[in-house]
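Teaching assistant's notes for section 4

Start the section by putting this record on the projector. Ask students to predict, before seeing the second block, whether AraC family transcriptional regulator will look compact or extended. Collect guesses on the board.
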Amino acid sequence: MKIDKPLIQSRTPSSLKIVPNILLSMPNVETIAFGKKSNSAIVYKKVTELLPDQEVFSRAASLTIVCRGTKRVTSYDGDFFEIREGEAVFLPPDLYMISDLLPVKGGGDFESYLFFFPDTIIEEFLTTKKIRLSSGEPADIFRLHYGTGLKLYAENLKPLFQSVSPRTEDLLRIKLLEALQIASSSDKTGTFFDWLFQVTQNKHRDLKTFMEKNFDKRLSIEDYSILTGRSISSFQRDFKKIYGLSPKKWLTIQRMKKAKELLENGGASVTDVALSIGYENISHFIRAFQEQYEVTPGEFLKKEIRVR
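Reveal the predicted structure now:
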């Protein structure tokens, strides 16, 4: 279910936290299995209190199973959805998102399993399947029926990997392929293979649409290139073809336009405005605003107050 929610506001840190790697060092995460070579993983997460604004980037396709509590997710383009207790959702690769983890109301933990599938696993799985390509855009997420098959599979992972030493990547590969097979068996629509093929084979996102929705995020040029499925050089080349400007110049212009609008609307301080358009350093924001409008944001704000 999609629920309307405002676009993501910029938050620290300025660099992306990449999953699954960042999860391995978190105190509330148990690593069931991790493939260093393939960057694949199965992890179990348990949270005892509200954990808001978890900003991450997942390069791999992933499956989330929520055992207890609720996970709220806002994607890069502002789409908002919930994964509730007893639900399983497949997410596409190259996804920038902010999530809130909510424990059970009235007491109880948030518990979930997370699976990360590298391209090699997806490709191996899909080569044996019949794909019916759709002409339309694939859905942002794919909801699965969390039935007995997925439940038993997930619950047996920890004891299985704990009984094996060392925890080999071969076993992880087999279990991830098994997860995909069980997930496809849980699909009542018969479209899981097609969706998975579409979201994993089409890596390039529409650059113009993405940038115009996300220019105010606290992201670097490298972050933008990753999120649109490009190398830095191809991102800069494609960007210049569309806008005739360098990404840095265009971002500054767009952010200053939004800053001016926010100051004109009132109710926000210079610091609030700077943070809302992706600036951590307030002095850098003031300098950029002054270069574009020949007045500092503070002076501009005073003028607006006098006019009112």
